[in-house]
Structure formats: structure tokens, C-alpha cells
Amino acid sequence: MEKKLLLVNPHWREETYLSRKIKIAAISHPPLSLAIIASYGLKAGYDVKVLDLDLYDDPWKELKKTVKDFNPSIVGVTCLTPFFNKVVKISLIVKKFSKAKVIVGGPHATALPNNLLNNKSIDVVVVGEGEPAFESLFKNDFQNLESVKNIAFKKGELIIRNPSSKEVYNPNLIPYPSWHLFELEKYVNSYILSRKNPVGPIETSRGCPYSCIYCNKTIFGTRVRYKSVLRVVDEMRFYLSSGFKELHIQDDLFSFDLKRAKNICDTIISEKLVFPWVLLNGIRVDSVDEELFVKLKKSGCYMVSFGIESGSQKVLDSIPKKIKLKDVETAVNLAKKSGLMTFGFFLFGLPAETRETMQQTIDFSKKLNLDIAKFAIVTPFPGTKLFDYLDSSGLINTYDWSKYFQHSPTSKVFKHPNVSWDDVNYFYNNAYKTYYLRSGYVFRRFILSLKNRTLIRDVLSFIKINLSF
Questions:
Q1: What is the pLDDT of residue 192?
Q2: Strands 151-155 and 124-126, how do they pair?
Q3: What is the CATH number of the domain that holds 353?
Q4: For residue 218, what pLDDT band results from cuts at 50, 70 and 90?
Q5: Cβ atoms of 396 and 380 closer than 8 Å
Q6: Are 173 and 163 in contact (CB under 8 A)?
Q7: 375 and which of 369, 425, 431, 438 could share a cystine (Cβ 3.0–4.6 Å)?
Q8: Average pLDDT, stretch 212-216?
Q9: pLDDT score, position 452
Q10: φ, ψ dihedrals at 324, nearest 5°
Q11: Residue 449 resides in a domain
């Protein structure tokens, strides 16, 4: 059989954003993980095709057609928890129309490998960081699986879990993503979160040493690893030459090494690269200063996001987020002073939550007066300390993974120890209503819309957002 690799991204935008109340702010990024794995496949001599099912009106029809026409020998699929059932269906279709081996990676695969391998249509699961595992699999032509670290696989009816590698993977060794395999023009990001399309997702570091209970650290781990400043800026140049018009940083901790973050900005400026970019994934408020924000603005960054989560210090301490509310205010104000747009992430339904703390979150978000505030309901994804705590306490109501959405208030996947789900849903909906209907906020956005000549578009979007809640 020819060496053919098909990489499949399950269709996720409809259920995650487009069918939710936050559809106006839908993200549309090509999948970075598959673009990187594709580069390893090409290097190993495979004929590689990437199939992003989000780009098709009838994804199942397109999958069947592609499997029949391309006839892959290996199919790789990424699996996020809410799309477990879709991944299983993808694997069944692959097996029906080809003899390909099916390899699954991603957060759910890492957290619960047996959950996937219990399906006969799935052959191998990558546990942890995908690059070193796929690199070894390609070198072995997917033979002698016992020698490949960071995977689990089936041998007959037996599930075998290989040891994890003790080596820390150097992100500078990761090849540049194979963006030429994608139809980039089909990715249209919400203008609320971007200025130009297509938007390229790019990472400059991996790992996070903090232990927030809602966050999955099972893939990249707790040790922070960096790409060099020159590698980062050269990769940015590569993205722009590949057709991207704007870049979104995906790091958990872009500014954890403050000096490095500033050097990236300085190098972008000295190399005379001109492009809009955003720190979309949320930087920590305790690893910034005014100089960083000034350099971010000067280098083309126009918006920074902060993982704030709660307006209650008690809730923050219980997560444990290890930040102070006063530091949040300082960071947001410094960013505004530097001319940057500000974006804050907030969560309702954390274990220590009460009606009072949820109201405090709404009040604090208004006090911060961010350009964009995104509210969500906490979801206990497998692989997080929150899931382990709720599971061991008998508080998980369902293991139907399709219910595990942060913007699906009716899912009720766990029993909250303090508040009712009616209360959580109320504060979630009320947060959007009261935040975006404030007279001061409306006036400020009106002035900004006039300045940017986007008044009609922004008014229509404003109406859509508030009619949803």
C-alpha cells in the first residue's frame, strides 16, 4: 500500500459557536496541530492530505468521498472531549471505505486513551505531546509499536500503554506548519476578534507551571519551553508569506519570560514586519508591565486577552489562580493606557461559587470596562483536576461527552456543591445583558465604530448579541 496520510479535523464550529449565543464571535483558525503533523509526514515521504470537515456543508459526505478517492494508509484525527462521538464516527467511516490505520491524538485521547481504544475502529492513541510520537511512528512506518513512547494501542483484544518519554521536547525542533496543504482563504474569523483574514494560529512556547483546576496540562506539561526569539519572528515571516494577514498567539504564557516577550516585539520592529496580531489565549496579569504593553502596541499587536475567571478573590484562591484582583486592574489599565484593546475571560460555576461571587464577577467585569468580555460556564474536562475532584466525589452527572460545552447552560454535566444550575444560567445570561447594555459601554463603542467606519456593522452585531440573551 502507498504511504498516504490523511489528517482529519472534526467539524466543531457549529456546535461550539455557530449554534450558541456567542456565534457572532466565532473563531475560524486552520488547525495548527494537524499542520505540524503534516510536516512530519511529508518529511517521512508520505503523500499528505488535510481534511478540515468544518469547511463543508455536508462533512460526512466529504469524508466518505475523500477516503474513497485518496485511499489513505494512515488516518490521523484530533479529539477534543465534546467531539468524541464524531471522532468515533470518523474512524468507522474510514474503516468502512479503506484499510487505513486510525491514529487519534489530542486532549481527550491523552486524558482517556482507553475510552477511544475500546472502539474497534481506532488502532492507536497518542498520549501527550503529538510531535515526538508521530515522528517515531513515521520512522517506523507504524510498525513495531512497542518501541514507540507516548502511545497506547491494541494488540488483539489487549490494550497496551507504552511508557511516556522522559525527554523534554524542544519546540525549536518542530518543523514549520505545512500551510500549503490548506485552503486558507476559506477561513474567515469573526471581525470582532480579528481585523484581517485569514488569521494564522501560531505558538511561541509550550507548558504552564500553574495548577488551575479547570485546565488540562496533560499534553504540554508544567515545564515552560520556548522557541527562540529569532525562530519566532522568522516563523511569523513564514506565516505572512504563506498567505496569512493576521496572527493570533496560542501560548498559555507568552509573557511568562517578560524579557523574551519584549525581545520578540523589538525584533518584529527591527525586522520591519508590519502585520496585526493578537494575544488571544489570555496572558497572566502578574507577568506584565507597562513597557511590555508599549512594545506590543508598537510592534503591531492591537489586543491583549487576560484570563481573569472571577471577580471574587475567594474563588480565585480556590482554583488556585494565584493572582490578585488588584493586579488584574493594574494590568488592564496599563494595557488601555498603551492604546491596546482589552479582552477578558470569565467563568461561572467554579466549585467555590455562590450567588454572591457570581454577582461579584459581573460587577468586576464592568469595573474593568474591557473592550470585550467573554463569559462561559466552567466545564470539567477529563484530564483536569476539576474533573478528578467531581468524579471522585460522585458529582459527575453524565459521561456523554457531547454535553461538555462551555456555552451550553442546559448540559448540567455535574452537580454543583453550592448553587443551582438555574442560578448559574441566570448569572451567565445576565452577565452578557448587563455588560453590553451599559450606557457607557454603548457610547464608547459608538465612538470607536465612527472612528473605524464600522458603525452599521457594529450596530447590527450589537443587536444580534443582545437578542441572544
A1: 80
A2: antiparallel
A3: 3.20.20.70
A4: confident
A5: yes
A6: no
A7: 431
A8: 94
A9: 57
A10: -115, 145
A11: no
156 burial (CB, 10 Å; 0-12 / 13-18 / 19+) is exposed
Strands of the sheet with 101-105, listed across from one edge: 47-52, 4-9, 74-78, 101-105, 124-126, 151-155, 158-161
How far is the C-alpha of 155 from the C-alpha of 359, rounded, in Å? 53
Identify whether residues 338 and 222 lie together within a single domain.
Answer: yes
Residue ending a domain, choose from 126, 143, 161: 161
Task: Please say whether the dihedral angle defined by the alpha carbons of residues 79, 81, 83 and 86, taken in this order, is positive or negative.
Answer: positive
For residue 176, is it within any domain?
no
In angstroms, rounded to a whole number, what is the distance separating the alpha carbons of residues 125 and 89?
A: 16
Asked whether residue 289 carries a pLDDT value surpassing 90, the answer given is yes
Same domain? 21 vs 107: yes
pTM listed for this prediction: 0.92
All residues at 6 or more sequence positions from 91 whose CB lies less than 8 Å from its CB, including other chains: 75, 77, 102, 104, 119, 121, 122
How far apart are the C-alpha atoms of 417 and 431, rounded to whole Å? 22
Question: How far apart are alpha carbons 2 and 45 in whole angstroms?
Answer: 10
pLDDT band at 439 (very low <50, low <70, confident <90, very high): low
Domain that holds residue 146: 4-161
pLDDT at 352: 97
pLDDT score recorded for residue 94: 98
**Has residue 87 been placed in a domain?**
yes
Please provide the distance, in angstroms rounded to a whole number, between the alpha carbons at the two ends of the chain. Answer: 54
**Chain segment 122-176, per-residue pLDDT in tens:** 999 999 998 999 999 999 889 899 999 999 999 888 999 999 887 888 999 999 9
Query: Residues 94-98: contacts with CB within 8 Å, 24+ apart?
Result: 94/6, 94/63, 94/67, 94/121, 95/121, 97/64, 97/67, 97/68, 98/67, 98/68, 98/71, 98/72
Q: What CA–CA distance (Å, rounded) separates 363 from 355? A: 12
State how far the Cα of 210 lies from the Cα of 88, in Å rounded to an integer. 32
The enclosing domain of 138 has a CATH number of 3.40.50.2300
Parallel/antiparallel/unpaired status of strands 151-155 and 158-161: antiparallel
Beta bridge partners of 372: 343
